[in-house]
Amino acid sequence: MERIRAPKRITLISTGGTIASRWQGTGYAADAGGDTVLASAAVPDGVAVEVVDLFNVNSSRMTSERQLTLLRTVREVLADPAVDGIVVTHGTDTLEESAFLLDLHHDDPRPVVFTGAQKPLGAADGDGPGNMYDALQVAASVSDLGVLVVFDGRVHAARGTVKTQTLAANAFADPSAGPLGRLGFGRVDIRSAPQRPAPLPVPADGALIPRVDVVMHHSDADPALFEAALAAGAQGIVLVATGAGNATPEFVDAVSAAVRRGVLVAVSTRVQAGPLAEIYTGGGAVDLVAAGAVLSGTLRAGQTRIAVLAALLSDAAPAARPDLLRRLIAAPLPQDDAADADKAA
């Protein structure tokens, strides 16, 4: 006699975004609860869903405080061993930041899967129902992959995945790598596993949230905005440089002064894909690193800021934070790549 399998228990944490947005008379805004969003989609066979309405905001209104609330809520949900996985519905504008923050702290084999939509709730050609179905299917199927982003039939690692399309359905990609897998014909096809650093402890309740600002370099840029961030109390700054991480001698001086004051400085790039590298002097990455800045690898500005925030929220001593930041940015090499590097050495 064939045994009847118990359904996979998935918790849906609803935070708002386009997938929960309806017309407000002048534009769209998130206002639908998680039950309404879930009711718009089919649920995969063998999956039972419980809904947690955490908050309901457009993702451009996301804050570090809300992201930490989400992190702690995920931890509370996973304290129940009967839960098999979590799906988080989230607006697409800042989804990459929230997903990466959770991934830096996620220490459970059960998956946390972010999804959302590019078209509002109830749109005749909306993408939310399909994305919801796919996210539930992935959450009920995989393990030991960390935090994931499921969108438009693709499964992405949280690390490195950013919004690359403002309106198109295929909103997310890692410009420096491919997706982990795809969905289709009722299957979840995972082709690779993400490389992740050891997870951080969850910050204590009531921890003060440090200010971390982002400043962009451009042809006529000077350090005025960088210094304004310092004056506003920034404990961390991400400099979005040009090319492989280049700015000017004036920025190098400003970075050096900030680092001497204990400010954690990271350098990202406005270029879409590829790693940062110490190639140029004259204000380039060579000089910025010598001044105490940490290069962000293949992370772009939003996720680099999250890495800086996580390092500042950790219990690491101030002098140890740059090394911690390097570890958070530089995930371990895949085994094959590590072996090749050892051979080359």
TrEMBL record:
PROSITE patterns on file: ASN_GLN_ASE_1, ASN_GLN_ASE_2, ASN_GLN_ASE_3
Family: Belongs to the asparaginase 1 family.
EC number, as in UniProt: 3.5.1.1
Stored Gene3D superfamilies: 3.40.50.40, L-asparaginase, N-terminal domain
Domain (Asparaginase/glutaminase C-terminal): residue spans on this chain: 211-316
Claim: Transferase is one of the keywords in the record: no
Substrates-to-products reaction catalysed: L-asparagine + H2O = L-aspartate + NH4(+)
L-asparaginase N-terminal domain: residues covered: 9-193
Protein name, UniProt field: asparaginase
Keyword terms, alphabetized: Hydrolase
Lineage, uppermost ranks: Bacteria, Bacillati, Actinomycetota, Actinomycetes, Kitasatosporales
Pfam families assigned: Asparaginase (PF00710), Asparaginase_C (PF17763)
Keyword Hydrolase: yes
SMART domains assigned to the protein according to its UniProt record, in alphabetical order: Asparaginase
InterPro entries found in the cross-reference section: AsnASE_II (IPR004550), Asp/glu_Ase-like_sf (IPR036152), Asparaginase/glutaminase-like (IPR006034), Asparaginase/glutaminase_AS1 (IPR020827), Asparaginase/glutaminase_AS2 (IPR027475), Asparaginase_C (IPR040919), L-asparaginase_C (IPR027473), L-asparaginase_N (IPR027474)
Positions of the catalytic residues: T18, T92
